[in-house]
Amino acid sequence: MSSTFWFRARVHRYRIAAAVAVVGLVVGAGLVWWQLGAASDDSELRAQLVEEFSGAYPAVPPEGGGVVEVELVARPSSVSLTGEAPTEVWAYNDSVPGPALRVHLGETLRVVLRNELPTATTVHWHGVRVPNAADGVPGVTQAPVEPGQSYTYEFTPPDAGTFWYHSHFAGSEQLERGLYGSLIVEDPDEPTWPTDVVWVIDDWLLDDTGQVNAAFNTPSDVEHNGRWGTLVTVNGSTQTLLDAAPGERLRLRLVNASNGRVYAPRFDGLPASVIAVDGLPALEPLPADGFVIAPGNRIDVDIIAPDAPGEFAIVDDFTGEEFPLGRIAVAGAQTATADFDVPVAEHVPTWQASSEVTVDREYRLAITRGDGRWEWTINDRAFPDIDPLRVDQGAFVKLRLVNDSQLLHPMHLHGQFFKVLTRNGEPVDEGHFRDTTLLLPGDTIEIGFVALDPGEWAFHCHIQEHAEAGMMTTVVVRSS
Ligand code: C2O
Ligand code: CU
User: Fold this and answer.
1) Residue 67 CB burial class (10 angstroms; 0-12, 13-18, ≥19)
2) Ligand 1 atom nearest 436 alpha carbon
């Protein structure tokens, strides 16, 4: 009995081995066929990536909120940056930054821009997934708003988080002169911090008389990393000070509104972690010290004020030359630290399978000698001479950015959040989405996204002088 059984089992094993061999051959042949068919059919993998994405962030905004009406008047004004003599600026509603806008998820923002500048302008809502017509890109989504004219932007933000708005017309001059502000979208379901503040960071290049140096977009700015100022302000002041009680919990939202300068803040003595990047929450808190904030980037930092009173300086250290940003003064009676879990992303895809997916387009970023001036080109072309990338709504898209230069390029995609997939050939899993990612000299970065929002979306370097020298293209999302 047992020997018969053994015999049968052995035959059975041989059959399994034979079957495995046959399956192996078929799979092997299939792989060869698949590789020969090259790029061809990765549609199943792409479908998987879209599937993995679902639930990462909503396709459409929640409804039911009211309309928040805002008027932004862009006009010449003056502010004091250092607490001393005033500096002439261009401002929204006479303040730099412009009004700090806050809305709740579900509310619709209706903003009337009135242009009282001596030149044309537009407003872009950086990071907000707006209807295309509200995106503020002259020559792509709207005509420039001429002096004396108005334009109404209306949108319901689909995502809660830290966003900002700024001129998208001649940014090298208009951002530098002060045309920017913050936009916070609050989720009523999230815990509220006892202190929740925005610090908009900018640097200024002033002349000897304390006025904005009027030489904008110089050949030197273009050939380097844009215009880097020597005076760094937070919320338009060199004196920004935040008072906190010992033990108090703070949500500090940092926005980099500079033309070109990159920051890497240090939070000496302060327990600080990054809980959101470019608006959207991260999967888990990340160390805040040295977190790089390129032009366009935002981070939300969760800070607990130490029990021992004192003054804590937050200092930028990106270049090795330290720039004070602002200070937190901890004083007074101890307060009970608000006890809640920070909001974290419900789901951020790892998109590991994206390594098997072909690149939809490679973008080579380089400087070239154009018509008697330097141009920053993408695949040898300078905006508006572009070849828009057309993708389908709902599709997974993989882009490769190759920095063929010795300079910095914070690349910003309008209308979509993306995830960094690889950096210099190594897989990357940051655990959060972005709308802007910094390429260091020589870097190659691959990014992926699922195109949710139809329209023609700008894709450009956020160094204003590079963008104006041509470093901009578009991605067209065709609605399905
Ligand atoms: Cu914040 Cu197209 O820019
Ligand atoms: Cu650039």
Assistant:
1) exposed
2) 1
